[in-house]
Amino acid sequence: DCVIDPSRWHDTLDHIRQRFHFYNVMLAVNNTFTQEMVMSVTVNIPAHLAAIAEEYSEHIGEMWGGWARASAVSLEEPVVSRDFISSDALEANPYYRHFAAPQGIDNALAIALARDSLTISNIGMGRHKSAPPLSSGDLAELRILARHLRRAVVIGRILETSANTARSFAEALDASPAGVVLVDRHRRVVH
Predict the structure, then answer these.
(1) Are 58 and 162 in contact (CB under 8 A)?
(2) CB-side exposure of 154: number of CA atoms within 13 Å?
(3) Which of 57, 44, 26 is closest to 124 using CA atoms?
């Protein structure tokens, strides 16, 4: 559903958040070439905290053992931040101190959804200190969900890129000083 209607991402992620007792969720989809964020969906993160998260985002990788280690995690594999960082290092991390700790978040789960020539995407879910620990069953279910989330992100990006390419092609034809007519195999005018 999120492929056809991206506005459904929020409710979909909120259902996942509630099902697994996460405090908040962030989905980021970036253009690999430009590093530009093409989609960002946040659930249960007020605007002022989203700004703080952005301000300290350069420190997120440290919470996962550094960007090199985080980048080596398999696609679709749920990983828990406490498996990558000590309590002392976590508490010293500026992202944690300014964004997560004030909300009572003491752990996080991340899933890499895409890492290809078109898209870099991941989802992060904050775990409140009052929530029960994630079970192996929870991680198994999240692994299954990750496949579907990944497909939705990847197919959505392919469709978006194809639509943009077609739009650019049509604009180039329209801007051409020469008359250009495109016909299909039945010789019907299509543009």
Answers:
(1) no
(2) 14
(3) 26
Q: Evaluate whether 126 touches 55 at the Cβ level (below 8 Å).
A: no
Residue 63 buriedness (CB in 10 A; 0-12 / 13-18 / 19+): buried
**Radius of gyration, CA atoms only, the chain:** 20
CA distances, 94 to each of 33, 108, 191 (Å) = 28, 15, 54
Q: pLDDT: is 2 or 178 the higher one?
A: 2
Beta strand ranges found along the chain (DSSP E)? 24-31, 37-43, 79-80, 105-115, 119-128
- Biggest CA–CA distance in the chain, Å, is 70
Q: List residues bridging with 114 in a β-sheet.
A: 121
pTM: 0.80
Identity at 121, one-letter amino acid code: S
How many CA atoms lie less than 13 Å away from 161 in the CB half-sphere?
Answer: 13
Which residues are CB-contacts of 112 (< 8 A; sequence separation ≥ 6)? Answer: 73, 74, 75, 76, 77, 121, 122
pLDDT at position 65, please? 83
Location of structure tokens 């995407």: 121
Q: What is the mean pLDDT of the chain?
A: 87
The pLDDT of residue 148 is: 94
Distant-in-sequence, close-in-space partners of 159: CB < 8 Å, separation ≥ 6: 3
